[in-house]
Amino acid sequence: MTKIETESFAEYILVEHRWIVVMVALLPISALWKLWSTFRNYVVFKMNSAPKMHDRKVKDVQKQIKAWLSGDRSTRLCTARPAWQAMSFRQGLYKKTFTNIRVNLVDVLEVDTENMTVRCEPLVTMGQLSRTLEPLGLALAVVPELDQLTVGGLVMGTGVESSSHIYGLFQHFCTQYELVLADGSVVTCSKDENPDLFYAVPWSYGTLGFLTSATIKVVPAKKYIRLEYHPYNTLSDLAQQFRAESLKENPHQFIEALQYTKETGVLMTGDMADEIGDDGKYNPIGKWYSEWFFKQVERHLKKNRSAVEYIPLRDYYHRHSRSLFWELQDIIPFGNNPIFRYLLGWLMPPEVSLLKLTQPEAVARLYEKAHVIQDMLVPVEHLEKSIEVFHKEIEVYPIWLCPFKVFNHPGQLKIKTKADWQMFVDVGVYGVPKAKGYETVSSTRAIEAFVSQHDGFQMLYADTYTTHDEFRRMFDHTLYDRVRDALPHCKEAFPEIYGKVNRNVRK
Ligand SMILES: Cc1cc2nc3c(=O)[nH]c(=O)nc-3n(C[C@H](O)[C@H](O)[C@H](O)COP(=O)(O)OP(=O)(O)OC[C@H]3O[C@@H](n4cnc5c(N)ncnc54)[C@H](O)[C@@H]3O)c2cc1C
Ligand SMILES: NC(=O)C1=CN([C@@H]2O[C@H](COP(=O)(O)OP(=O)(O)OC[C@H]3O[C@@H](n4cnc5c(N)ncnc54)[C@H](OP(=O)(O)O)[C@@H]3O)[C@@H](O)[C@H]2O)C=CC1
Ligand SMILES: CC(C)=CCC[C@@H](C)[C@H]1CC[C@@]2(C)C3=C(CC[C@]12C)[C@@]1(C)CC[C@H](O)C(C)(C)[C@@H]1CC3
């Protein structure tokens, strides 16, 4: 790994032996925090007190905006959620200069089993939501994997997971948003009510207003996922099958693939099941002692044999959470060792927010120079070409492959077809690049150019090195600009999306 200059002994320990800090402090604090919030959520939800409080909390947001309106309005607005708590990789520098609006809305408001929707406040996390819905026999149509992702962040950014080839991105299965706008008013929008605003909100990164609730579709859930593993030894075979499975008329409910080298990978297809069948073994991958999921999947590749397993529902939904995909192996190198797992596995994973909070400058420099975190979204027909380009420019494995539909809706994600939808694939690369000649800016820019030329998009929680013009070419701003022009005080209160995601405003 690239060596980075450290400035003090403490910094040396934090960089070279980060696991010490993680084990001694972060893991126990994370566990206490999780336990407390689980208990608190349970009590609030059972007492059903949240809906009554909601209006009061929305009024508090309005009050803060009205205070800004009556001032000199020399600063812009963003949420007060500290940068270290957010999942976005970089810290937003604008948090220090903008007026911070507290949107402390943390509750699941209502589960409507008739219309099969759940109404949530923006700080509800995916872990909290899957835990609330499971006993009711329900699940979100798509469950973005990491526990700490929030409804607000996923609506304003995006969310994708292994059922997205049916339901699309997070925005595609949200039916209504409630927002407080820059003039202090509260509006709701859906495909029938204020449709322009409804379609412009996703990917707007909080630059149209503050989200105070979202109504999201839920689906019936069963106890297990029956998961098939199919190893492949050539890229073309894997890609062909990946496409065929995603585009089938009646596809499996879950599809993802992990690519372990340029040519080899494992395609996984899953369906919900009420019982454990006798065609496969039971595998509770979420147990504290179980091996990291991506390592288990790799074993199927080594055996070079298809297999079937039955996995408990929540274990499946959060299958990459305990190892933060494969990122934790760089932070706790022995995290997958059986002795560690049996003794301390129940403390995993450390909270991402606490990791961010304790990240020293030197680690940030190291990640900047020799670590890639990117999700590129490309039409599925370009899968092979994308892997080849990623291999040439970056060479990081495993690669996460997840198919998803982009529906032909108005908004920033404009697809180049007249059909109702187009199938895309999320190519996720997380790790230390091994490609010869890798250099952060030029290599990332080469990939961004490839994605743009192939009518794709970049996920914006990671770093973007596009220029303003390139960014506006990747994301269609026609509707977004129109909505910003029409909403009173909007342009005064919020920068453009690029003003919140480009490298100059992110540390
Ligand atoms: C900065 C920050 C802000 C946060 N803000 C919020 C917030 O606003 N609202 C919020 O709800 N959460 C918040 N969280 C916490 C977040 O919800 C949890 O990190 C996440 O939901 C944990 O989910 P999990 O699926 O990993 O839980 P699990 O891993 O399933 O459980 C975590 C712990 O709870 C125990 N547990 C699980 N289920 C139960 C149960 N039914 N009864 C008792 N114990 C149980 C487990 O044994 C385990 O020790 C925040 C976290 C951070 C770091
Ligand atoms: N599986 C997946 O799909 C994964 C998705 N992600 C990405 O992570 C991000 C979500 O992380 P999370 O920590 O939840 O969100 P963040 O706190 O990072 O918020 C993301 C953006 O949404 C805005 N936002 C959040 N809440 C509100 C609100 N109530 N009103 C207005 N704007 C709001 C934020 O604005 P502000 O800057 O003002 O706070 C910010 O620009 C998304 O970008 C998502 O794409 C990451 C990993 C996996
Ligand atoms: C669309 C999908 C599935 C995206 C998965 C994204 C994950 C791999 C990302 C989300 C948050 C993320 C950027 C993070 C990190 C790794 C990659 C993560 C987990 C780490 C833990 C790397 C180490 C860093 O020091 C630091 C702690 C700041 C970050 C925190 C966020």
Automatic annotation (TrEMBL):
Entry EC no(s): 1.3.1.72
GO BP terms, alphabetized: steroid metabolic process
Protein location: Membrane; Peroxisome
Main location: membrane
Record's catalysed reaction(s): lanosterol + NADPH + H(+) = 24,25-dihydrolanosterol + NADP(+); 5alpha-cholest-8-en-3beta-ol + NADP(+) = zymosterol + NADPH + H(+)
MF (Gene Ontology): Delta24(24-1) sterol reductase activity; Delta24-sterol reductase activity; FAD binding
Start and end residues of each FAD-binding PCMH-type domain: 45-221
UniProt enzyme class: oxidoreductase
Membrane topology: Single-pass membrane protein
Keywords: FAD, Flavoprotein, Membrane, Oxidoreductase, Peroxisome, Transmembrane, Transmembrane helix
InterPro entries in the cross-refs: Diminuto-like, FAD-bd_PCMH, FAD-bd_PCMH-like_sf, FAD-bd_PCMH_sub2, FAD-linked_Oxase-like_C, Oxid_FAD_bind_N
Assembly description: Homodimer.
Name of this protein: Delta(24)-sterol reductase
UniProt source species: Mythimna separata
